[in-house]
Amino acid sequence: MKVKIIKTATAEEVDALIKKGKISEMPSIQQDWRFNFDKELKKLKNATGYLLVTEETPNVIEGCMIFQLIDKKEPYMAFVEVAPHNKKDTKIYDHVAGCLIAFAYQLSVIEGVSDYNSMLQFDVMEEKKEDEVKLMVLYSTKYNAKRWGDTTMVIMDEDGEALVKRYLSK
After folding, report:
1. What are the Cα distances from residue 113, in Å, to 91, 92, 107, 119?
2. C-beta atoms surrounding 97 within 10 Å
3. pTM to 2 decimals?
4. 116 with 157: CB under 8 angstroms?
5. What is the pLDDT of residues 30-48, one digit of tens each?
6. What do you get for the CA distance between the two ends of the chain, in Å?
C-alpha cells in the first residue's frame, strides 16, 4: 500500500510503501530495534509482518508491524515499532507509526470476523508502569485508542476510520 510520511527536516511529504516482509527481512535487536521481529513472527500463528519503506530508499526500514489474526477471527497488532533513526528529537521521518497503525486497523476491517470486524486490539506492556501509562496516553491521544482492561487497548469504528483518513487517504 502506498502511503505518505513526513520528512522532519523539511516537513515535505515523502512517498512510502507498506509491504509484507519476509522473516529474513524483519528487523531485530541486533540492528538496534527494540523487538526481534524476525523471531516473533516465526512464533506467532496466523501472523504477517509488514515493513514501511520509502520509495527512495526501499532497503531502509522506517517502521515495522506484525498483524495477527487470533483464532482466525480477532485482529491483533502484536508488535509495532518505528526504526531507531525515527525516534525522539533526531527522527528522520514522522507519521511512520500512524501509517502502520492505520494500516493494521484497515486489516481489521478486511479480516476481522463477526464482532471482531473493525476492532483492532493490542497490548501495551512496558517494564515500568509509568512508561506503560505514558504510552497508553500517547495511543489514546494520537491514535484514538481506548483502554480495555489492564494493558489492552482497542481502536474501533469511527476512531479507526479517522486514522485511515488521516494517514492512508492521500
Report:
1. 37, 37, 11, 10
2. 23
3. 0.96
4. no
5. 999 999 999 999 999 999 9
6. 11
